[in-house]
Amino acid sequence: MDERIVKAYESRPKDWVWHAANAAIIIVLLVWSLGAMESSGTNANGGKMALNILSGIVHPDTELLFNLSKEGVLYLLLETICIAFMGTVVGAVFSIPLAFLSASNLTPKPVAFIGRMIIMMVRTVPAFVYGLMFIRVTGPGPFAGLMTMSVTSIGMVSKMYIEAIEDLDTKILESLDAMGCSTWQKILYGILPQLMPNFASTAIYRFDINLRDATVLGLVGAGGIGAPLIFAMNAYRWNEAGSILIGLVVLVLIVEWISTKIRVKLTRG
Fold first, then answer.
1. Which CATH architecture has domain 61-268?
2. Distance of alpha carbon 40 from alpha carbon 196, whole angstroms
3. What's the pTM?
4. Quick one: which of 178, 204, 238, 256 has the most CB atoms within 10 Å?
């Protein structure tokens, strides 16, 4: 037994050259990447700037934080939530027909290929670029952010929907067909019960992403709390920036906790 093990070990493929070459390539890529990174913007005031930001978070502007007017943090957070939520809903709704058209187990392969190419093209454009485009079309404001969230959601949500559709248990549909069920009954009792948990879980996960993206889109004028944050930081009003950051952190933590609970419930039933 031991001799066979020794012989198998001695006759093992000598691929150390291949591993050494891969390691050398990785090292070269790391060195090249580090060489391309520049920190010319860092100066002697960088540490002081970081301390000012931390000081603003520790000593926030409570008047701005609890202000109930349209300039207050609470209203801006609510606007950000609305942009992310409506963008997710619109994107999820439009993703359903696109996903069914792109599912290879339901539609002919040429049609599914075209649908997948459309989804791929939508996903290649960053949300920031979509935000700039819609601001030019609709003007700055929450509506531009909503449109941006909708389009960016379609790219990811439809892809996840396609995977759920292609994993359908066709035996259930065959059983319903043998019972003489109509097409609507097969959709109602055979397809939707399988897809709804995955669809809902995907939409909730996308809402988490959109909530963070909506904050960034505010920097280009697409509504939300991003614009007041960048204005406060550019004007060195660290207390205001700290209050906005505190509101964002609390909001993201609450939404993350709630969405995780809902997704676990949907997954486990």
1. Orthogonal Bundle (1.10)
2. 51
3. 0.73
4. 238
Give the pLDDT confidence of 73-107 residue by residue, as tens digits. Answer: 888 888 888 888 888 999 999 988 888 888 887 77
Using CB atoms within 10 Å of the CB of residue 48, give its burial: 0 to 12 exposed, 13 to 18 middle, 19+ buried.
Answer: exposed
Tell which phi-psi region holds residue 103, choosing left (phi > 0), alpha (psi between -120 and 50) or beta.
Answer: beta
Angle at 172 between CA 168 and CA 175, to 5 degrees: 150
**For 253-268, how does the pLDDT look when each residue is reduced to its tens digit (9 = 90+)?**
888 888 888 877 776 6
Number of Cα atoms under 13 Å in the Cβ half of residue 240 = 17
Look at residues 249, 157, 161 and name the one whose alpha carbon lies nearest to residue 212. 249
- Per the CB < 8 A criterion, the answer to whether 205 and 258 are in contact is no
Residue by residue, DSSP assigns 148-205 as HHHHHHHHHHHHHHHHHHHT--HHHHHHHHHTT--HHHHIIIIIHHHHHHHHHHHHHH
Rounded Cα distance between 56 and 52, Å, is 6
Q: Which residue has the tokens 């559709």?
A: 165
What is the spatial distance between Cα 131 and Cα 241, in angstroms, rounded to a whole number?
23
Burial of 14 (0-12, 13-18, 19+ CB in 10 A): exposed
